[in-house]
Amino acid sequence: xxxxxxxxxxxxxxxxxxxxxxxxxxxxxxxxxxxxxxxxxxxxxxxxxxxxxxxxxxxxxxxxxxxxxxxxxxxxxxxxxxxxxxxxxxxxxxxxxxxxxxxxxxxxxxxxxxxxxxxxxxxxxxxxxxxxxxxxxxxxxxxxxxxxxxxxxxxxxxxxxxxxxxxxxxxxxxxxxxxxxxxxxxxxxxxxxxxxxxxxxxxxxxxxxxxxxxxxxxxxxxxxxxxxxxxxxxxxxxxxxxxxxxxxxxxxxxxxxxxxxxxxxxxxxxxxxxxxxxxxxxxxxxxxxxxxxxxxxxxxxxxxxxxxxxxxxxxxxxxxxxxxxxxxxxxxxxxxxxxxxxxxxxxxxxxxxxxxxxxxxxxxxxxxxxxxxxxxxxxxxxxxxxxxxxxxxxxxxxxxxxxxxxxxxxxxxxxxxxxxxxxxxxxxxxxxxxxxxxxxxxxxxxxxxxxxxxxxxxxxxxxxxxxxxxxxxxxxxxxxxxxxxxxxxxxxxxxxxxxxxxxxxxxxxxxxxxxxxxxxxxxxxxxxxxxxxxxxxxxxxxxxxxxxxxxxxxxxxxxxxxxxxxxxxxx
Length: 571
Ligand code: ATP
Ligand code: MG
Prior knowledge:
BirA Bifunctional Protein, domain 2; Rossmann fold; 3 domains; 15 helices; binds adenosine-5'-triphosphate
């Protein structure tokens, strides 16, 4: 491609809403332009990077036995009502009506459409396994679109769906996809981790997220410093931090004590000359299944997502003050499990407590000498604790959990029969008996992957593209454009590289070398070839590595070989 004819508007300024470096650089390097909040146009340079990622994805999907299809973006509401997601998917789902008042939505994901397809077409176990994928536009009316194409409202996703005859076969499909994802993100030149994750509104029994490690990532991850355990903070577990809980050997009877205005764990503990770990903290949450409560030792925190999963709820949030007052008959801060008539889960940390303090469900009062086994024996126990860095690994003996920030670029789910049951996607097994397909689904944010790569690969001058996803692999910079010898050499190199199938950009613009160098650094093409004074005096060109800054000057005749070697080494 010739730069002079390329639509590549580079900029010095950054947009005022750009918070992260990838957003700033994608704008400045003329890769994207904003149309509306969370809605972007990809310009040629941006689209080239996007297509490179898509190509890698397609190669690996095809290699793993998946078949490409293309489903519609506009989806009828009937299918979403059938799957049960129409009502609770919430405002992220952009709903619309056609001229006949029929309901539709813009697809945020495609489980409904693909399951409908399979239920109509698949008959027998001989048709399975079946893995279908597409690369397609999604729409999610995100509550906080930001970071450019990283958290957009309209974005391109590769989504794949697997259908298997039983759990064992479904696990095999899942593992194949896990391997394919690992290859995809390695080939894209990314530093990433696969972590155990919550399944969110997609549902299912288990999932992994592929996280690109970056300071600006929105996700917090915990990973063991000794073994392979890694999980999203939303899902992570750890060994219960030990606390020598105060114990009275004799059984004391419950006692109601006056704790005027003491609502917070720390205040109550100080007032009653106890430790936070002697308290049972009672948190009340609103879910689609009604109010629920979580109990946890006072020095620890509840992870609402774990609570949500235990109750099989679709959403969860802290209950409002008014709801808490109505339920407990007391101000917020004085709730306790004794006498509370809603579904409750006590964290594992609560079970050993023998002389604890909890709210009395009466304003300004707490109960002392609570014995878990005696006073709240009926409450079920589960892990609802938020794990933290520095705590011990739940998997291995001596590991400690470390914290990382990450950008979720891919997410794979074991879905089980959630959608095939809801929509009736069944097949006949070897005995002629109807069975539901066991499903999995697998997503990659294509634009987000490009942005994440930039987040991980840049310097103060601009982008440093990994070769595999670079819009061009090589940029040729003739400096004295008025000198025919210089332009002829640049052209020879350009043609020779193109013949070899290398993506090359020729900066044939008239203009000051300073401007060309600045643009070259900004758009981050991995290998730069300069044809300048040295060519005029000695017939040599300069080859520079964008990443290391390393420069060699070699005769024109050796340049192509050198460039090929360098690209190979960078790949
Ligand atoms: P997030 O937690 O970041 O909101 P998600 O868990 O809702 O994402 P999935 O349903 O797992 O997303 O979607 C699969 C992939 O699509 C994600 O791993 C991500 O790479 C991409 N993706 C999701 N939402 C967006 C978005 N708003 N903009 C760009 N890419 C997105
Ligand atoms: Mg996800």
